[in-house]
């Protein structure tokens, strides 16, 4: 099935939040960031679950930003990004758990940055 290119600003922010959260969780559990293979797999999984479509360049741009953001958030001195909070990012079905303050903060951070950079 070929999805149209339909990722609006909020969808891009949610995908970025999902990938950033995945990086932070992997770092917390294993000490390493997600491998490139895992990032591709996570991106594909998110896009299928959400019926999203993006060309290769858009997927690469989004996924490469995710690691940069995760690295910045890991060292940020913000109370919402503590190691203990990272484990609350996902539901049992591996979707972002927006009941988590941390997940909401990461999503809002990404949405705000996308708007600020005019990356529509």
UniProtKB/TrEMBL annotation:
It comes from the Bacteria. This is Uncharacterized protein.
